[in-house]
């Protein structure tokens, strides 16, 4: 009987901890402290990330829309894309690579109340803050 209670307790704790991540995140302009900590002057702005209760997400940048599943690993948010659409505008056409999926789109690491991700190009960071539940 103790094991049944322990199992329910662990399930409850894991659900509760993931609930704190659910919500909408938006890019912020990093302050001097963040730029110094991550040793960069480059950052991405105007991104939006929505984490839903069913472990799905929607991620929007100036050039990409992505949908997929999110998970938590060591307090980091891991985004795995199921579908990625490239936006086109009237000035700059973005080519769509055939069949390309962004398998592991981003890993957002928590630093104070801000989530930080480093893009694969090595020097550009994305700083996001939760704006709504």
Note down, in words, how this protein is organized.
The chain has 133 residues and is of the alpha+beta class. It is built from 2 helices and 9 strands. The protein has a single domain, classed as Lipocalin (Beta Barrel), CATH 2.40.128. It has an 8-stranded antiparallel beta barrel with strand order 1-3-4-5-6-7-8-9. It is globular. The chain starts with a helix and ends with a strand.
Write the layout of secondary structure elements.
Blueprint: H1 2-19, E1 23-27, H2 32-38, E2 43-44, E3 48-51, E4 56-60, E5 64-73, E6 76-86, E7 104-111, E8 114-118, E9 125-132
Parallel strand pairs: 2-9
Antiparallel strand pairs: 1-3, 1-9, 3-4, 4-5, 5-6, 6-7, 7-8, 8-9
Principal-axes geometry comes out as: globular
SSE series: HEHEEEEEEEE
Strand order of the largest sheet: 1-3-4-5-6-7-8-9
Strand content: 35-45%
Give the low-confidence spans.
Answer: 1-16
- Give the tally of β-strands: 9
Q: What's the main sheet like?
A: 8 strands, antiparallel, barrel
Mean pLDDT: 74
Radius of gyration: 17 Å
- So what's the CATH class? Mainly Beta
Structural class: alpha+beta
N/C terminus separation: 36 Å
CATH topology: Lipocalin
Kindly give the count of domains. Answer: 1
What would CATH call the architecture?
Beta Barrel
Helix content: 10-25%
The number of helical runs is 2
Protein name: DUF306 domain-containing protein
Organism: Aurantibacter aestuarii
